[in-house]
Amino acid sequence: MELIQQNPDINAYLAASETIDHEHPLVREVSDRLADDHPGAYSYAEAAFVYVRDTIPHSMDSGDPRVTWRASDVLEQRTGICYAKSFAYAALLRARGIPAAFCYQRLTEDDGSDPVIHGLVAVLLPGESAWARQDARGNKPGVDARFSLGEERLAWPVRPELGELDHPELYAEPHPAVLAALKAAPDRSHLDRTLPTEL
Hints:
CATH architecture: Roll
CATH class: Alpha Beta
Low-confidence stretches: none
Strand order of the largest sheet: 1-5-2-3-4
Largest sheet: 5 strands, mixed
Radius of gyration: 16 Å
Pfam families: Transglut_core
Protein name: Transglutaminase family protein
CATH topology: C8orf32 fold
Helix content: 25-40%
InterPro entries: Papain-like_cys_pep_sf (IPR038765), Transglutaminase-like (IPR002931)
Number of helices: 7
Order of helices and strands: EHHHHHEEEEHH
Strand content: 5-15%
Distance between the termini: 18 Å
Organism: Streptomyces litmocidini
C-alpha cells in the first residue's frame, strides 16, 4: 500500500499542538533520557516505540478507566488507548526532529461485526525515502507488534474479506473524529461505546 502524505510540507509532521505537546517539560525529559541511552535517529525511534508500547499500558487491556488525549498526559498518567499512545509516540519522535504522522486502520471482530478505527504512527527517518507505519498499542497474547522499517510488524494486519482496511492517508494531526471521541469521553466505558467506526 502506498501511503499518502496529506500535507506536502514535511514541517507539518514536526509541529507541536495542544495534543502533540512535544515542548512540554515531561515530554522533553523522557525524550532526553531516551536519546542519551539511544543515540542516533533509528536507535532513538525504536527505543521510543518500545517505551510507549511496553511501559504505558493500553487502558482496555489494563482496565484503567481514565481517558487521556494529550501526549504529556499519556506519559504522566501512564495510560491510554491506541490513539493516545500514538500521540505520545509521535510527540517523542517530533521532540527529536523526526517526522511523525497519524494513520489508521478499520478493524472488526472475527465475524466482521463491530468495526472500529485503530490508530497507528508512521515515521520518516533521516535517509529513508518512505514512511514506515508502527503500532505502539502494546502487546498481549496474540499480539506481537514490533518496530520495523521493512516488513510491517503491526498488531493486526487487515482482513479485507471482513471489511477491514488500511487507510493510506498520513495526517499531520490526529483525525478530528478520533480526537473528538477522546475529548468527549468522561471515562473509558463511555469511550468504548463512542469510538469512531469510520473516518
